[in-house]
Amino acid sequence: MTHAIGAAATLAGAVLLVWLFMYATYKLVQLITRAMMLPAVITYVITVPLLATVVIIGILNR
Fold first, then answer.
1. pLDDT for 24-39, tens place per residue?
2. Which of 10, 42, 47, 53 is the most buried (most CB within 10 A)?
């Protein structure tokens, strides 16, 4: 049971770090797109492929 709790805590920490990275990336892109007075949808159009690229690079580096 102790190992399961430790594994869950580790997984929660990893998920939190991933969420923070995604949120920070979104906010940075949102800041830039607002400064350029672009529509809000452009934030998603830029953020999603950027994060997908990071994931693909991470998978390929394994």
1. 999 999 999 999 999 9
2. 47
